[in-house]
From TrEMBL:
Residues 5-255 form the EAL domain. SUPFAM superfamilies: CBS-domain pair, EAL domain-like, Nucleotide cyclase. Keywords: CBS domain. PANTHER family: CYCLIC DI-GMP PHOSPHODIESTERASE PDEF, SIGNALING PROTEIN. The keyword Protein transport does not apply. Coiled coil: none annotated. It holds the Pfam family EAL. Residues 272-329 form the CBS domain. Residues 428-579 form the GGDEF domain. Gene3D superfamilies: 3.30.70.270, CBS-domain, EAL domain. SMART domains: EAL, GGDEF. The keyword Transport does not apply. This is GGDEF domain-containing protein. The lineage of its organism: Bacteria, Pseudomonadati, Pseudomonadota, Betaproteobacteria, Neisseriales.
Length: 591
């Protein structure tokens, strides 16, 4: 046994010494435009060796006490290959936390590798791969602080799978977190996994962290992840690890909206662009001072290396510094990069205003005052101001409030029509369900308008609970009429579930006497007393294929017709219309 280990140790020593590791790169896609945001660097041993597999490679290194040496050799191999392939975007570089707190750890060693090949640390994300429990958080934080000071960014890998991922997130405050593929694969059928991913995304928005969804293998998983709002994705569907990965992904989102720069009613960061001149990192600090002094409207200057922003110079900081004695002599001829903020807020032009607003308000207050840098494929475009962002968000909120139903706060007629028209224009198949409360007026007359409003709210809450919050759209037409637009494949089952849940909740809204009797007496529209059954919920369901409908008017007419057919039967009933074949029979809760 010892002989075998000695042989493997000798093989590993030789692989490290002779540089026989091979680099592979897996693309990380931007969910805004389908292009490469960056690449994760991976390694393999020699193809003919037992140590070809990374699992074997790192297990043997750990057993032989060579983990730190192997980790460093991997960095050198991956960085050199990344530059050699001229890959765009960021390099996600795997690093074992144990090596950062190893006695032989040298904070500047990785920076030396980058300098040798001419790669900026601003393009490198140190990705912590947690193969062992992390105990010394203080020492780890201290090591990572050195990386941040040099311009690197930090990511936590496999969140949800390791020993202490959430504590690492809280303690280290990384710029990126990668959700373990366990929670991504199968989330289209698993509501709990979707809720986990939504929760992580919510935490990330409130901590200024970007989320990468790992392990995406199907278009449906990509669809759900993007609709949740996650901006970065990785997996076999996007690209497998390979030595020469594509530099352009041109990823097509199947059935998913792809915002374009400056387009769409919801707005994007690109709509807030202000043309602000850029400066190079080596421009003298005294020249920057003169720019600010000569132009009172200039509040910040982006520092751009080539086409990539690397920092931000702030008016008040520069002017304040040069107002001090001896500053011109001490700093005047030094490069302006020594004065810049190395971690400004940088966003892609296609970032939605909602996500941008959450990033700005949830992160440090300075982002609101300093503004943000806008890029396209990491290339500098211009800047945006917090003032313009707040004004745009106010306009969106006013518009949303104007078209929302005041009772349920669900989208009203205008957003419903816009959603139908957009899906028709994009030729996306969907299903429309028209819901209507039966015998609602007598209920209002007997129980009062406040109880009637509560029943309408119950209907809205029930439909929201049965719809997929990612794929489906719930709207309130007005009064006791609702519509649900389904992209889910199981629309009929969801509608049946909604009718059953509504019926189960009804006893809370009627007296025991009326429930036992199955109805009550009330005046009809002519003022004559009449016996009415309990309130029920009817729904008409229509599959919509773009070629069969010219506008939202035709979709609404077909849904209204199906709903009318459902209302012919007593009780809570669903009528399904199949345009391509015979009508499906009605389905009733009482059946």
């Amino acid at each position: 046994m010892s002989d075998g280990r000695d042989i493997l140790r000798g093989d590993l020593d030789q692989i490290i010494a002779q540089g026989r590791l091979n680099a592979l790169f897996q693309p990380i896609a931007s969910m805004r435009d389908g292009e490469a945001f960056g690449y994760e660097g991976l390694v393999r041993g020699p193809s003919t060796s037992f140590l070809h597999s990374p699992i074997n490679l790192f297990r043997v290194a750990e057993e032989c006490g060579l983990l730190a040496q192997l980790d460093f050799a991997c960095r050198r191999t991956i960085v050199a290959a990344f530059v050699r392939e001229r890959l765009p975007g960021k390099l996600f570089l795997n690093v074992c936390p144990a090596t950062l707190i190893h006695p032989d750890f040298r904070p500047g060693a990785t920076l030396e590798i980058l300098r040798d090949v001419g790669l900026s640390p601003q393009r490198v994300v140190i990705e912590l791969t947690e193969t062992q429990p992390t105990h010394d958080y203080d020492l780890l934080k201290e090591a990572l602080l050195h990386y941040r000071e040099m311009g690197f960014r930090i990511a936590i890998d496999d969140l949800g799978e390791g020993f202490s991922g959430l504590r690492l997130w809280s303690e280290l405050k990384p710029e990126y977190v990668k959700i373990d593929k366990y929670f991504i694969q199968g989330l289209t059928q698993d509501a709990q996994k979707r809720q986990f991913v939504r929760s992580i995304h919510h935490i990330a928005l409130n901590t200024g962290t970007r989320v990468v969804a790992e392990g995406i293998e199907t278009p449906e998983e990509l669809d759900v992840v993007r609709r949740i709002g996650i901006s970065l994705a990785q997996g076999y569907l996007i690209g497998r690890p390979q030595p020469n990965p594509p530099q352009r992904l041109a990823l097509e989102f199947d059935g998913v909206e792809r915002p374009q720069l400056g387009s769409g009613r919801q707005g994007s960061a690109g709509d807030l662009l202000v043309d602000v001149p850029k400066v190079s990192p080596d421009e003298p600090a005294k020249a920057i001072y003169r720019r600010f002094a000569d132009d009172a409207t200039l509040y910040a200057l982006p520092v751009v290396d080539g086409m990539r922003p690397v920092g931000l110079l702030k008016r008040h900081e520069v002017l304040e510094l040069f107002a001090r004695p001896f500053t011109p002599e001490l700093f005047g001829n030094r490069p302006c990069s020594v004065l810049m903020d190395r971690s400004p807020l940088i966003v892609e032009a296609s970032t939605s205003l909602q996500e941008l607003s959450q990033l700005v308000t949830a992160a440090e207050r300075r982002y609101l005052a300093d503004g943000f840098i806008v890029t396209s494929q990491t290339h500098y475009l211009g800047m945006g101001t917090g003032h313009d962002l707040m004004r745009a968000m106010t306009e969106l909120q006013v518009r949303a409030a104007r078209h929302a139903n005041p009772l349920t706060l669900l989208p009203g007629n205008v957003p419903i029509q816009e959603r139908i028209e957009r899906w028709l224009a994009e030729r996306l198949p969907f299903t429309v369900a028209y819901f209507d409360l039966d015998h609602f007026k007598p209920y209002n007359d007997v129980y009062g308008y406040a109880r009637g409003d509560a029943l309408i709210q119950l209907c809205g809450e029930t439909l929201l609970a049965c719809a997929d919050p990612v794929r489906d759209f719930v709207g309130h037409i007005g009064g006791d009429d609702f519509v649900v637009l389904f992209r889910s494949d199981d629309a009929q089952l969801r509608c049946q579930s909604a009718l059953m849940q509504f019926e189960q909740a009804l006893p809370r809204h009627f007296s025991a006497e009326h429930m036992a009797a199955g109805g009550y007496s009330a005046a009809d529209r002519r003022g004559m007393m009449q016996r009415f059954p309990l309130v029920s919920l009817s729904a008409g369901l229509v599959d919509v294929v773009a070629r069969d409908f010219a506008s939202h008017h035709e979709v609404a007419a077909a849904a209204a017709s199906a709903k009318s057919l459902a209302k012919r039967d007593p009780g809570s009933t669903l009528f399904v219309e199949r345009r391509s074949g015979p009508h499906a029979p009605s389905w009733s809760v009482a059946a």
